[in-house]
Amino acid sequence: MKQMLITGAAGGVGSCLVREYIDRGYHVYAADIQSDPPEWPAEYCTYIRTDVSDTDSVHALAEKLHEMTDHLDIILNASGVLYEKSERRLEDFDIDAALPMYSINALGPLRVVQCCVDLLRRGEDKLLVNISSEAGSITTHADYIKRYDYCMSKCALNMQSVILQRYLSKDGIRVLLIHPGWVRTRMGGPEAPLSPEESARGVALTVDAHRHDPENGMYFDYDGSPRPW
User: Fold this and answer.
1) Which of 157, 82, 65 is nearest to 120 (CA)?
2) What are phi and psi of 32, to 5 degrees?
3) For the chain, where are the alpha helices, taking DSSP H only?
4) Side-chain half-sphere of 178: how many Cα atoms within 13 Å?
């Protein structure tokens, strides 16, 4: 059975990604900070409570994974936050309060990869998927004039992914960045056009389409369309 790690697994899109990959025959190690996660079939999913903003917590996650498996085929980083207080103009923006968001959105995935990349090297699929955002695109960032923390954290995640692809290509590891769309979750709000299920299905199909196609870029929308940097 193929095996994968999904972080941010208890969130709207994250939870649907867990179910999507269970249906595809993977055993999913689902990591999230929530103490009361969704119910998934235990034979196909193992939940590990993890705070990706805490290095010790991520080390503990890695230790548990190494006890339970000798490989991961996919690492999918879906952890991410958007705080209400980030919707502030320059004069009112609390710069110091932005640090926790950076620690989750940008450094969280890097902590996970650093601790678990040896398992990914031994996998078959050898895929690292980071859930990014249109907000991380300098070209098409929806003309934000606020949300410095969120936009900048996702842009940092994009640069991180480029560096990781350069470093990990020698190991046959493919890195993908995917914008999940505007989704009806707590983060996206009730007016968003996509359901979490539609987004998760699109993400999985985009991963399928580009997993062995490094010549056609690495930054995509959930529907497979290339996303400009």
Assistant:
1) 65
2) -165, 160
3) 12-23, 55-68, 99-105, 107-121, 148-168, 196-210
4) 31
Tens of pLDDT, residue by residue over 103-115, are 999 999 999 999 9
Contact between 40 and 30 under an 8 Å Cβ cutoff? The reply is yes
CA distance 83 to 187: 8
Count Cα atoms within 13 angstroms, Cβ side, for 111.
22
Instruction: Tell me the C-alpha distance between 58 and 56, whole Å.
Output: 5
Query: For 6-15, what is the mean pLDDT?
Result: 95
The burial class, CB within 10 Å (0-12 / 13-18 / 19+), for 57 is middle
**Residues for the chain: how many in total?**
229
Q: How far is CA 176 from CA 24, 136, 161, 190, 211, in A?
A: 19, 14, 8, 28, 8
